[in-house]
Amino acid sequence: MKQKQGFGSSLMKMMTNTAFKLDSLLSEDIKQNELMYIFGQEIQNVDSFLQLKETFIWFSYRANIQYEGKALSDQGWGCLIRVGQMIVANSLIRDNSNSKLNDLKTKIISLFDDNEYFSTKAPFSIQQIIKKASLIYNLKIGDWYTGPKIMCLLEELFLSAKTIKQLKIINFLEQCIIEQQIDLQFKQPQLLVIHAIIGNKELDQYFVAELKKHIQVPQFAGAIVGKNKKAYFLIGYQNNQGIIMDPHYVQESNLLQLNSQLKCTPLKQFSGTIALCYYISSSQDYVQFKTALKELNGSIFSIIDETCTCFF
């Protein structure tokens, strides 16, 4: 029998969603006819923006998740899980322009399905993540995750997952890409995740400028960013505003959400702990990626080649 959460959880859901809506009202609007960069693409008009926005996949907190005979919610502790899921989902949708968009999005979202009837088959559902986190990190329900932990868990889950296309996640925890860890033949697309510390409580003017340059790299696939102990999915910027997907909204576990929710937040307000993600589809793509990074002079991270030479 399906379990339901109690009145207290419903009240918390209402408060969280009210705060989400208020924050949306107070945040600066995206100027759809002005220059912005999203997922490494330069966008300058409303048609291009709306066309790209249709491809986005947004995940958020869920209520009444069925797990081991109980109903639970990840509200208050699962935002990094949802950001990690968004990184993977929005990476999977790249290079699939020939598919019918809504069918493709539905197929990808099903890989993350929290619904009790499908979660055992969905390789990246929160139930599967909770199980793997307990096994590897001894994390319990309600424990906070870190960027490295959630992305390493997803890397591990990918090893046994059957998805719409092969994708390899590689985490780099030392603020540099080590080429020995990459398949330079690129038999499958690779998602490079570089975990970095680039400041303290907030970003200074220098790192705001450098972060914007890294977002402009064509292979940019988003970033994990934090603000006030909350995690967000940074997908781009406009002027000095970061464009984010915010997971701090509670939906029912059986609801399929095809529409994405975007917000703007000043880049300088993000903390200095970040994880930058780049989707590399081929050897040629990787050469282009390295060329773009060389111009950035290793301001956030560097690349170490097979001879242990650091090139920037």
TrEMBL record:
Cross-referenced PANTHER family, in alphabetical order? CYSTEINE PROTEASE, CYSTEINE PROTEASE ATG4
According to the UniProt entry, what is the EC number of this protein? 3.4.22.-
Q: Which organism is it from?
A: Paramecium primaurelia
Source domain of life is Eukaryota
Entry keywords, A to Z:
Autophagy, Cytoplasm, Hydrolase, Protease, Protein transport, Thiol protease, Transport
Q: Report domain Peptidase C54 catalytic positions.
A: 48-290
Function of the molecule: Cysteine protease that plays a key role in autophagy by mediating both proteolytic activation and delipidation of ATG8 family proteins.
Any GO molecular function: protein-phosphatidylethanolamide deconjugating activity
Would the keyword Protein transport turn up in this protein's UniProt record?
yes
Give the UniProt subcellular location, in the record's own words. Cytoplasm
State any GO CC term. cytoplasm
| The protein's enzyme class | hydrolase
UniProt-recorded name of the protein:
Cysteine protease
Q: Which GO terms describe its biological process?
A: aggrephagy; autophagosome assembly; mitophagy; piecemeal microautophagy of the nucleus; protein processing; protein transport
Q: Which Pfam families match?
A: Peptidase_C54
InterPro entries found in the cross-reference section: Peptidase_C54, Peptidase_C54_cat
Family, according to the entry, reads as follows:
Belongs to the peptidase C54 family.
